[in-house]
Amino acid sequence: MIPLDPLTASTLLILAGSKPEICPVPPPTRIDIIPSTAETKFDTSKTLAELQGFSMDTVDPYGFHGQTITQAFMSGGITSSYEIKIGNEFLPRYNAYCLWYEKITVKIELDPTIVIAKELHRDFCMRKALIGHESKHVMVDRKVVNDYAKTVGQTLYTELKARGFSAGPIPSQHGQETVNRMQKVVKQLLDFEFQKLEIDRTERQRAVDSLQEYQNVDEKCPTFGRHNAKLYENLSSAQKKRKY
């Protein structure tokens, strides 16, 4: 397993503005961005034939003739979740609420698994070559998690600052509606950031699966294919190319 740099956690304390003549100044809004990654797991329980049944989102770097054979891949993506806590104070004199963002917690998590065909995992050279390649995919995801842990917090700060971190006084009959709107703004901002994350991640991962990279992996174990031709005999193809 390749050692990875520690993830970066960021916390932002924001002075929430309001209408001081009616609503008291609320406590600072806290935004916690919590990235985490699980230890890389390995799945070597599946045969080479079974791996062909998995759908891959990698763009095939080879030509259009023949069939590409999947020998290993990384599974488990980046997941995200968030929690929004809205603070409030009721003003009986005005029958109104003062509302503010009390705390926003965002979690970005990575849980990678490297899947290698069991027949290839038994071979020391192929095992090392495949783990080396798939570890590059893990490193890409790790970098994406770190990068977006920084940008998501800054985006929330910038966008909420432009809108104001608090609202009030709000007539009591519109209190819940305003809370819903405040939560919706955060949800929309985060959904957009996570959409960008997925697009960015896909582009970075596809850059790893270049034709040159595949050829480099093949060159590390030049005799494996010749000495283990029977592994591929049951995979229907006139011309087989390896994919990692």
Portion of residues in beta strands equals 25-35%
Q: Helical percent range?
A: 25-40%
Structural class, from secondary structure content? Answer: alpha/beta
Question: Biggest β-sheet: count, sense, barrel?
Answer: 5 strands, mixed
> Which series of helices and strands comes N to C?
EEEHEEEEEHHEHHHE
Mean pLDDT: 83
How many domains in all?
1
Nearest-angstrom radius of gyration? 25 Å
Poorly predicted sequence stretches spanning 5 or more consecutive residues: 1-20
Tally of contiguous helical segments: 6
Oligomer: single chain
Report how far apart the termini are.
17 Å
Name the shape in a single word: rod-shaped
Query: Number of DSSP strands?
Result: 10
